[in-house]
Specification:
- By secondary structure, the protein is an alpha/beta fold.
- Helix content is about 20%, strand content about 30%.
- The strands form three sheets. Strands 1, 2, 3, 4, 10, 11, 12 and 13 form an eight-stranded mixed sheet that branches. Strands 5-9-8 form a three-stranded antiparallel sheet. A two-stranded antiparallel ribbon has the order 6-7.
- Strand 1, helix 2 and strand 2 form a beta-alpha-beta unit.
- The protein is globular, with a radius of gyration of 19 Å.
Length: about 260
Amino acid sequence: MDKSSASAAEAVARIPSGASIAVGGFGLSGVPMTLIRALHDQGTGELEVVSNNCGVDDWGLGELLRAGRIRRIVASYVGENKEFARQYLSGELEVELTPQGTLAERLRAGGSGIPAFYTATGVGTAVAEGGLPWLYDTDGTVLKQSPAKETRMLDSLGTEREYVLEPAIRTDFALVRAARGDRHGNLVFEKSTRNFNPLAAMAGRFTIAEVDELVEPGELDPDSVHLAGIYVDSIIALTEEQAAELPIERVTVRSREEA
């Protein structure tokens, strides 16, 4: 089955306003920038996004955020995004902050058909007990907060301890980026871009991937495939210019000592 689309615009055309979307990437690494911009250009809004973070100001998901297209985000990190913090604190954006490992497992569980799981992360904190502010009013009062979660004492290697029940995440769509992919949707990720991308792809009911290089079926070494094509519904090939757009989030330089 050839899953390739002619353009990013064609690939995201089916995503309506109000949809939930899992988005791969971590900081500026592995961000499906071309698909995000196509979504921005078609005017889609009122989105609920699940991603490790919301990009940075004016790049990545930050472009959708600044345009007012995101209604709610489930993330683990605010990052270097001042607009994210401003919208959250001013009551313009609903934010569900989740421990990073828990967020990763919630996405993986959703893609694996596991409805929920127990974890020790967050036990004894507001993560389990509830009360984390999700949505503020314009005057700073809390309009919506996280509910208390079910906890349970379970045996772990002979020691009983408390765990909290975390729900899996399934989204309407997912946007991911990979280094290579074939027309069947099998994907190979480059180094640290293999972060939240496979997990986001698994969680989406309809997953769209952008790849630096699109090859024919059979050209990828099966042992090198990081994500099977069963999780991918549409794939686009990036141009050389699009693939080369790899900004550095924080540049640090030093003077070299004289020889």
